[in-house]
Amino acid sequence: MKNIDVCLTPDLLHLHKDTLENSIVVVADVFRATSCMVTAFAHGVDCIVPVATIEECRQWQERGYYGAAERNAKMVEGFELNNSPFSYMDERLRGAKIAMTTTNGTLAITRSRNAVKVMVGSFLNLEAIARYLRSQSYDVLVLCAGWKGRPNLEDTLFAGALIERLKEEYSMMEDSAIMAWRMYNQGKNNLPHFLANSSHIRRLQRLGIHKDITYCLQHDLFDVVPVLRGNALVCIEA
Amino acid sequence: MKNIDVCLTPDLLHLHKDTLENSIVVVADVFRATSCMVTAFAHGVDCIVPVATIEECRQWQERGYYGAAERNAKMVEGFELNNSPFSYMDERLRGAKIAMTTTNGTLAITRSRNAVKVMVGSFLNLEAIARYLRSQSYDVLVLCAGWKGRPNLEDTLFAGALIERLKEEYSMMEDSAIMAWRMYNQGKNNLPHFLANSSHIRRLQRLGIHKDITYCLQHDLFDVVPVLRGNALVCIEA
């Protein structure tokens, strides 16, 4: 039986270095980086290059890429794209190439490069990811992007949601996976309510983006499977 | 209002270094280091020196201390004391001095030295710890010892149990604390059942120590408050 494990924050990724090379990593930064990426692919974006710094993002922009930069949950000036998923529902982005840097999500992606495959997950493409993973023979590690090294509730809930979808085919051997799965089952009937007191929700609510939160918690909106190929995320057929 | 936070494993302690100096740290290694310590104090032990290595433990032993050493959940040869709490229920230990090294718990204690105070928590002395903390003006950080750097279920549940006791006087600002508290409330009516699939329970059950697990999950058996003074844990009046 395949195994599914959860790394609650990139600051604990060192604990998985022996298994990373034999696992598919699913990176989740539900609020909002990976939800933005999934939305972008669902609207026809060609590729997304996750980069670590704002400077790198500018360099890609100079080569004709659309730029998207976020720090501390706010958009950085001088880039075309917002860090709200709604800004990716744009016909002009069909076929576009994007460079993106965010506080947590893009870093989690670039730090997982040694894995068999790096995929991007969100509630929006939960079943698409689950279906793809079922077709593969590898173990799975869900990497929660967290917030500046700290575990967070929303990405942990995503990990639990993915486990719930895969629990017939995968075993969960480690407590982080058990915790994520239990947490999701406790909150799944009303995720917005369950998340109401979380630190990031409070952070985002101060920014007045309640609409983004509600949107990002919807399950299975899009049938897209973004994977890292070289330095770019591309969408593959599930 | 005072704040209570949770660090799910010593491998995330770097995230708390700015607040550690203004916080009381409660270290929990429920299975079984801190439960052993609390049991020892409840049975009249004078002090317990937590040490990092087996070699150090031997050196203290040569100075007349009782030695207790555990690695990978098993007792190390050549020391008087077992790593089962039942081995501390011994009249001969009244007034004794003990040196102890364990896989996770003692390391978590020694790494917290910069805190205002380092205390030892377990379900066995939950209310004693809660009562002491209420009398103090400092914020609290619960440090879960985890397993070799990984978060575990039982120590997270302890953190949640302590938050449940303190929730009127303390706010929980961070998601780790919210997760621990939610997890405890989900499992509190039947902790042995809730923990049945956890990785450490499976590890311990292979060792045939079901009795220890049941014992360590009992709440409020002892009114003892162990704190670190210099290099030794001593029991203070709550």
TrEMBL record, chains A, B:
<dbReference type="InterPro" id="IPR005238">
    <property type="entry name" value="ComB-like"/>
</dbReference>
<comment type="similarity">
    <text>Belongs to the ComB family.</text>
</comment>
<dbReference type="Pfam" id="PF04029">
    <property type="entry name" value="2-ph_phosp"/>
</dbReference>
<keyword id="KW-0378">Hydrolase</keyword>
<protein>
    <recommendedName>
        <fullName>Probable 2-phosphosulfolactate phosphatase</fullName>
        <ecNumber>3.1.3.71</ecNumber>
    </recommendedName>
</protein>
<dbReference type="InterPro" id="IPR036702">
    <property type="entry name" value="ComB-like_sf"/>
</dbReference>
<keyword id="KW-0460">Magnesium</keyword>
